[in-house]
Amino acid sequence: MHGHRTVLTGLLGAVLLVATLSSCTQGGDQAPPATSSAAGTLVATGTVPTVANDLASNSAHHSLEVPGEQFGLLVDYWTGYDAGAWQTLQPKDVNLSVHLVPAATATGDPPEVLISSFDGVTTLLAALPGLDGLPIAQTHESPTAVPGYLISATYPFDNRLGIEGFSDSLQARWQTLAGDEPLTEPAMVTAGTYGNRMSFSYRIAVRNNGDAGYHQRVVQDTLTVPEAGQPVPAAGSAAPLSVPTTTG
């Protein structure tokens, strides 16, 4: 009986030794299973509205009223970028020229008119609250030594709104929302981006003949341009975007 136990114990030890060697061999020769760290696709919920392309011909001309004054403004906007194929992440410039237009009923001496400051801001239009309204480009212009830039019917005020594309603000917000998912144009469209809005603010200093100083007027304007890669909505309705899903 004692002999049988000895043989059994020996056989058991041999089996365990073989299993241990087999385990060590597999562990040394094969890499552990790969784990995926890819973030899930950021997908927006909501609807994509129709957006007017104010730069459809790569230019726009807006007549702006200046309440309480005997003049208005004519602003010419134009870009060398193809606004019919607008991509948010591509760098581009929107140029502008502000012209003074005296009213047909203007009487007396013309006023002295200055552009005391100009602000331009480009924001995202998106069906995702975290992206919608995000400023992605800003321009500010104001003189330091004089009260403003003189404009007249002959001399306009010229400037531009530069849009960098991969701006710091957009990259930081994207990382917050999408994690490791790369920031690309298709990914932004999937996340609900459907256009850009450009907002312009013109602060005007006006001094009429006999005035001791200037009074201020603020005139604002807006351009919208749709994202070229946006889903095409059905006639008379907006196209719903997918419900977000997360992958591990």
Features:
alpha+beta; 4-stranded antiparallel β-sheet; 36% strand; 248 residues; 3 helices; single chain
Please give a structural write-up.
This protein has 248 residues and is of the alpha+beta class. The chain has a single domain (49-240), classed as ApaG domain (Immunoglobulin-like). It contains three helices and eleven strands, in the order H-E-E-E-E-E-E-E-E-H-H-E-E-E. The chain has helices spanning 2-29, 168-178, 185-190, and strands at residues 47-48, 59-65, 71-78, 92-102, 112-126, 135-141, 149-151, 157-163, 193-207, 215-226, 239-240. The strands form three sheets. Strands 5, 6, 7, 9 and 10 form a five-stranded antiparallel β-sheet that branches. Strands 2-3-4-8 form a four-stranded antiparallel β-sheet, with no helix packed on it. The radius of gyration is 32 Å and the shape is elongated.
Query: What fraction of the residues are assigned to beta strands by DSSP?
Result: 35-45%
Number of domains: 1
CATH top level assignment: Mainly Beta
Helix content: 10-25%
| CATH fold assignment | Immunoglobulin-like
Number of strands: 11
Question: Nearest-angstrom radius of gyration?
Answer: 32 Å
Structural shape: elongated
So, CATH architecture?
Answer: Sandwich
Low-pLDDT windows of residues: 4-39, 230-248
